[in-house]
Amino acid sequence: MPAERFVKQLNAQIANELASHNQYLACAVYYDALTLPQMAAFFYRQAAEEREHALMMVQYLLDTDAAVEIGAVPAAVSTFADVVAPVSLALEQERRVTAQINELYKIAREEVDFASEQFMTWFIKEQVEEVATMSDLLAVVTRNQDDVEQIEEYVAREVGANGTDPTAPKAAGA
Q1: Does the pTM exceed 0.90?
Q2: How many whole angstroms separate alpha carbon 160 and alpha carbon 67?
């Protein structure tokens, strides 16, 4: 069974991942309403990915006979000043999640919880990718905010569906 301190923090992270899901969903709806289908599709995929991360964490707790708690999720930001704002918010969110994931890894290490430390390794790799993707997207959106077709072209070309990672942990319900 994982260390109690790790379980408590992982349960909090499940709620954080679900909050990220809702925030990405709000971003997707914003872009959908602007008829920016590539940006909308990208953020709908991001939302689904965050939900899947939460379910991976649920499955880990279930597999290790630890209690699962689904915590409260704050309301997502649903209105944005311009096409740059959702991506800027997404980058801030990914940086925050990176710090949360790093803290979970640190707790597992401090508690000499090898299985939990190993479990978190995949999420650390994932966060490097997420921050890089959002950082690049923010640069493109900022540079092309007055030419949304260029943004749509970039997203279609560079950040389309990437497929599944065979090294990803199993998600609950999968």
Answers
A1: yes
A2: 36
